[in-house]
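Subject — a protein and its fold
Encoding — discrete vocabulary of local shapes:
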Amino acid sequence: MKNQSSEQIRFFLYLTRDQAAQVGRLRAAGVSASTIARQAIRKYHTSPSLLIEDDTPRPERSNAYISVDDAAALDSVALREGCSRAQALRRIIATYLLTNASAIDALF
């Protein structure tokens, strides 16, 4: 059996208060930050345009664990977008949350 922790990469996500609130609502529904990150990467890593980060302070920290394959997809996004992996992950998650805002709201 493979050691699963060696196959995952840990990211610290710094989110805006609004993003943290959305992620918090999803957590309350049983969806982890890691699941949100993985789904966002898999859905939007080939998207030609992602939301550009605004300069809103991101005081809320969350942890996400992604697979090596998802990290490779994230690397390609960071290269394409000309930003760090952390910025790419925030952009992907911001795009995911915005695109799915009505569906998230409908859960509650």
Q: What stands out?
A: Confidence is low (pLDDT under 50) at residues 1-5. The first helix runs from residue 17 to 28. The longest strand covers residues 8-15.
